[in-house]
């Protein structure tokens, strides 16, 4: 579907976002955000409203594959993870509404020292 053998759709999306200089990568998926563990297996799983790309990688939260997350982290591209199957969610995400989980770089502005 991406025309790139051996690359996941997540990695291809990250690559395209980097090539285009995107401000945000939208990841529409089957869950309503990123959880501390699999919500299908653990009823007490907690959804994050936001977290850092570095933490998602370190905690192996399964947001995206490691290559895709690393590319977003290196290029300072945040990822908005949201439920594809909820009607209107794509429009909400494009409009900048807060839905799902925002996974962002720790320091989105490389010139910012804090």
Strand-helix topology:
Layout: H1 9-20, E1 25-29, E2 34-35, E3 47-48, E4 50-52, H2 53-58, H3 66-75, E5 79-83, H4 89-94, E6 101-104
Parallel strand pairs: 1-5, 4-6
Antiparallel strand pairs: 2-3, 5-6
Helix pairs in contact: 1-3
Q: What would your notes on this structure say?
A:
- With 114 residues, the protein is α/β, with parallel strands linked by helices.
- The protein has four helices and six strands, in the order αββββααβαβ.
- The chain has helices at residues 9-20, 53-58, 66-75, 89-94; strands at residues 25-29, 34-35, 47-48, 50-52, 79-83, 101-104.
- A four-stranded mixed β-sheet has the order 1-5-6-4.
- The longest helix is centred in the first third of the chain and has 12 residues, at 9-20.
- The radius of gyration is 14 Å and the shape is globular.
Provide the succession of SSEs: HEEEEHHEHE
Mind describing the biggest β-sheet? Answer: 4 strands, mixed
Helix content range: 25-40%
Rg value: 14 Å
Beta strand count = 6
Oligomeric state of this protein: single chain
Number of helices: 4
Report a brief summary of the structure.
Helix content is 30%, strand content 18%.
List keywords for this structure.
alpha/beta; two-stranded antiparallel ribbon; globular
């Amino acid at each position: 579907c991406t025309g790139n053998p051996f690359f996941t759709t997540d990695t291809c999306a990250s690559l395209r976002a980097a090539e285009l200089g995107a401000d945000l990568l939208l990841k529409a998926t089957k869950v309503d955000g990123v959880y501390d563990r699999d919500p299908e297996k653990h009823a007490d799983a907690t959804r994050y409203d936001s977290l850092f790309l570095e933490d998602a990688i370190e905690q192996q939260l399964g947001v995206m594959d490691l290559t895709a997350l690393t590319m977003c982290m290196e290029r300072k591209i945040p990822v908005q993870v949201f439920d594809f199957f909820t009607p209107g969610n794509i429009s909400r995400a494009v409009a900048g509404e807060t839905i799902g989980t925002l996974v962002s770089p720790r320091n989105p502005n490389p010139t910012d020292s804090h």
